Structures
1.
Amino acid sequence: MSPARRRRLDLLPYLLISPIALLLLAISVYPALYAIWLAGTDASLLRLARAQFIGLGNFVRLAGDGVFLEGLWRTLRWDMAVVLTELAIALPIALLLNAGFHGRGFLRAAMMVPYITPPAVVALVFCYMVDGNFGILNDLLVRLGILDQYFSFLSDPTASFWVIVSAMVWYGTPLMTLILLAVRQTIPPELYEAAKVDGASPLRMFWHITLPHLVPSMLFLVLLRTIWMSNHVDMIFIMTQGGPGFSNYTEAVYSFKLTTQFEIGYASAVAVTLSILLVAASAFYVRHLARSVLVTK
Amino acid sequence: MSPAARTARWKTIGVYAAAALVLIYSLGPFLWIFIASITPETKTDWGAISGRGVTYFPTQPTLQNYIDLLNKTPFLQYFVNSAIIATGNMFLTLIVASLGAYGFVRFHFAGRGPLLVGMLIAYTIPSVVLLVPLLVIFRSYGLINTHLGMILAEATHSAPFVLLLMINYFSTLPRELDEAAQVDGCSRFGTLWRIIIPLSVPGLVAGGLLAFIMTWNNFLFAFLFTTTNAVKTLPIMMRLFAMGEPAVWSISAAGAVLTTLPVAIIFLLFQRMLMSGLAAGAVKG
């Protein structure tokens, strides 16, 4: 760019950026600030005009709210169960897909099927798979002699938790597999050749070469999935609405349920508190994204 | 047979056994719902709970469940709504995100860094936080029960996602292209339109289709922001089915298959572009 043109303010970049900036300002930034304000009110959808600012009142209420307090543990339990199971399934599949064999391309495509299935459909499929009358799981378990009679999985607090986790894991595994596979393929083959010459066993090569290369990505995936799973509502809400009882009320589900009951002030307080709890993880994520995007120039 | 050959053979068997397991895991649930969708519904009375047992191989496969789905439920209308909202979101997202990405990649201007970080922060604001304020705002602007409202709500995460994807994509195009075009007399906007956009088709296709799929799959916004059949989308119907309403299992199964079909077709046709887009970016959801 010539010095003459650099001197006056160039409007074109601002013009290019303004549509998305204004859009996000209107539908994300302003609503997020509005949510913080609502968290300080006793607003209900039924009498919105008469909403009053009550300061930290909602947060005081949270501190004594059993559903919220137990929800902290339920959220953590949900996050860990989903994320670690996903990792435990995705890693072996990624390593398998990295091996050369006939039909690998087909398997790679077939492996994506759960991710292609819309989450609401996944929820429906798993609801029916564990159904007490015509579910395949009951049928198989009875045939194998593990169960004496059909069992209503979604009515049991522990069983329903693991059924919902399975549905979520089934949906989420392919993406994790895809990312781990991409990272695995960046490890230089020379490392393995050298190890082979030294007589290293496959297990040792996995432990000393593959794993150390994958660990940074695995940690990052765990962080990322933990953020999204903490905020996840769909699978739990569609399958059991958070039930039976309060057994599957994560904080996100609790906030959503409060919203459907029109208690929007308190619902916002729950959602905002959840975001504050996740702020360190989110900041780390934003920093990671910013580094990848800002450095490209 | 030498020991080495024997080891190699066992290794091959092991690999294929593992592959078979992965195949059963990945395809089993969907295969089962597909089988259910072509199994004749034995139930005659719509009021009662379906009384049939588990069928693994239907002896008389039928398409009757699909016909019933289209005739007896508003499935088609929900399907059209989903398609309108997802397509609308795709175009809105592509336009604002590619303009913005070009601005961020090719220009240095005051406030570039903070603006970009602002976009990233907007990307990480979770839907749970946005639900309530958007509900209130949409009610006061008459956007509840409109396709436009749904398109806008979904853009809260598809727009920043596609922006990131396009920033990554544009960054791979050499700057000399722009300079050569401008030497040849292209305006700066013309450079974007005539040079950059045509070269970015794979990136645009990936971004647009991922935005389409995100919107197609969305449940939360649709659940809160729609109350009439004129705007409700397929995930809402899937929830009704999951709650056993109507309690005709084979018809629900047919609905599940048809709801998945558009996404499956998109993946079949554009697998390579989508896979690279997915592996490159970190997806929300």
Note: The two ends of chain A are 16 Å apart (CA to CA).
2.
Amino acid sequence: MSDNNLRGVWAIYKFELARFRRTFWTSLVLPVLTTALYFIVFGSAIGSRMGDVGGTSYGAFIVPGLIMLSMFTESISNSSFGIYMPKWTGTIYELLSSPLSAFETVLAYVGAAATKSVIIGIIILATSTFFVEPRVDHPVLMMGMMILIAIAFCLFGFIIGIWAKNFEQLQVIPLLVVYPLTFLGGAFYSINMLPPFWQTLTLFNPVVYLISGFRWTFFGAGDVSIAVSMGALALFLAICLGVIFWMFRTGYRLKS
Amino acid sequence: MSILEISGLAKVYASGTVALSDIDLTIQRGEIFALLGPNGAGKTTMIGIICGLVTPTRGTVIVDGKDFRQSYRKVRRKIGLVPQELHTDAFEKVIDTIRFSRALFGKAANPAFIEELLRDLTLWDKRDAQVQELSGGMKRRLMIAKALSHEPDILFLDEPTAGVDVELRRDMWRMVRRLRERGVTIILTTHYIEEAEEMADRVGVITGGKLILVEEKQVLMRKLGRKRLTLNLDTPLTAIPVELAEWRPELAAEGHELVYEFDARAEKTGVPSLLRRVSDLGIGFSDLNTRQSSLEDIFVELVHNGQTA
């Protein structure tokens, strides 16, 4: 019982949330503004010329995709910054010399970043109600998936934060890999709308399964079955946890 | 009674650099131990291993009877580390960073203790300032406060006075003595001999990753202390007379001084015979003095011998 350091975990969690609070307004306004712009462009301007997608209006159809788009980027950037900054300023010496286990360290940093991501996800969902009629068939599952996806991408961001040697590397994966994969992962369309060749190719994009699964919790229908989506999410979580376990075990780019 | 036992500690970096080779060292509870050595000697690596920043290639560290791997939590709770570089957050308030450090080490909040700590380090008036507003000296004191925030039994100070002005250095020395009075064991690294001489109970000399000597400071100075006899000559000499060659003296101050180094503990120091020979030769001198060599002289000699051996 005494062999844990929950006070240490809580200290980091609070510290990280305080960091977010300092940039609260930009963090809050940015997703709201982005969402509003997407709704104006895709929902109203273009969406009005689009038919329904699987019985859902186009404006409502893109809500889950929009939430995912923001949450992916927010999760990765917050989590990677959280662990990269102490490395960059040198204050990581204190973390490494503290009586904190690897699991507790990850719990604190990823927990804080995921908390922020989920808050942003909820804000975007709330914002969307100003533009479209929201419909969430499976609210509990929706929240559960939102939290798990936030955790998965925060774990991924944590890996990038440890791996990155400079600010450029910190940006390169989110911008060059995650953003395109998300855009092409069915955030704004159903993959059924694509020609057959592209449909097949798209199935190699892991993000498709996450967006499809999340959309399923809204409308009870997705590009792939919910079970496959859940499996993909579990696999992604497992891979990230495995990599982080290896990083701490070997001290990769943390210890010399 | 020992509080820290290091045995067979070695570190070879991935690049192949041997930073430490088979260090054995025991630190007594409540002592001030100075690890003295030139830059790159392995001082920081050694501290890094004990504190969890560096993975050792082999060897063990026992802190207060606990293994540093198996019982890393218990071990780390007992240790406070002040690294050499100033690593601080920028936007936090001073008092928040101290509270954070204490909690990070698993200690319950204790406002009275934190206040006392900050007052001790003359940071109390700055408690609500952002860290980035502090001067360099204050930042260093802040790092010490962070290291002490969880009330450690052992404090590691890595080059505590490097690049610090004289006044702050004195403050630091006073603080270290106060901590010792409270029973804190202090291990500091330095390449300033003055610092080791001023503060340490024992001195370890490290160079090229090897601990070449560990000794009580007083004993060290006595044992290795050489003395230097200086004669102030009435008329300057241009060369050492052959009659004095067996003492191997040197001329200094453009021939105005004759300097003879001798082992103060030797049975025959050679001083009386030299003086006799000097007067036999009719070399007049107005004054003479002898001086104990400083730790610095000892150090230079040791490091030099260590490298040529």
Note: Residues 166-181 of chain B form the longest helix (16 residues).
